[in-house]
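Re: that chain you flagged

S.,

Sorry for the slow reply, it's been a week of failed gels. I finally had a moment to sit down with the sequence you sent. For the record, here it is as I used it:
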Amino acid sequence: MNEPILTLELPGIRKLKSGKVREIFDLGDALLFVATDRISAFDCIMPNGIPRKGEVLTQISHFWFDQLQGLIRNHRRFGAKDELPPVLQPYLSTLKGRSMIVEKAQPLAIECVVRGYLAGSGWKEYQRTGSVCGIALPAGLTESAELPTPIFTPATKAETGHDENISYEEAERLVGSAIVAKARDLSLAIYKQAREYARQRGIIIADTKFEFGLFDGQLLLIDEVLTPDSSRFWPAAQYAPGRSQPSFDKQFVRDYLETLSWDKQPPAPALPSEIVARTAAKYLEAFHLLTGHSL
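Prediction finished late last night. Pasting the structure tokens below so you have them in one place:
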């Protein structure tokens, strides 16, 4: 198994930011996004990563950007098979498969979340209030139940910790009513198209979050899209409402950490090789199912 890439420096190219997973570099008139193999759980980055995870996230995003071009323009300058520019050629062995050159769009100050099934924080809120993010739902729904129609539930962006759900009215206050309405309609349309495609490939996309940005006055789809890190992917063959579902993400990591006496505060414990291998296999399986190809 390949050694995971956890940190990244490109001498001569200025790094702008390190996120939980991505490194962002300044290329002058564009940005370079590089997905590392870092993995976080309970808002803590694990000391060891998941080999090829960054490649999976980047290549799934490339795949969806290609699929969705008829609905909305995205921020890519180069496609998955395009050669990197000369300035990046010295770093080709590191960047290959896990990098994306994108426009310098201005991200909206909200996450655009679409939920098609009742899970996670939505399920918890529904149990308390019968609604999700202020949207009333029918009584008697069970955990993981499919919603009558997908719902748009915006959230604020958090540099650390969890994003916070907000009302539609608060989203309008943050970015303007016209932009929120367009982002909502696009989010729902993208989700519906992607969900139908994925279901045919054996994956249920239970929910997902999109990011949009403004570039030359136009709304672009940016960042990663419809990956196991930004979405809940469930194996369709195992779906059964009324319980939590197996998934194509870091479930093995979370389940393992729950068996420890760790207080979920940094520093996080190292992951055993078996957990790393099983998690890597899930990410690769998600890529294969969606695209019909292997990395």
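What I noticed first: Residues 130 and 139 are 7 Å apart (CA to CA).

Talk soon,
D.
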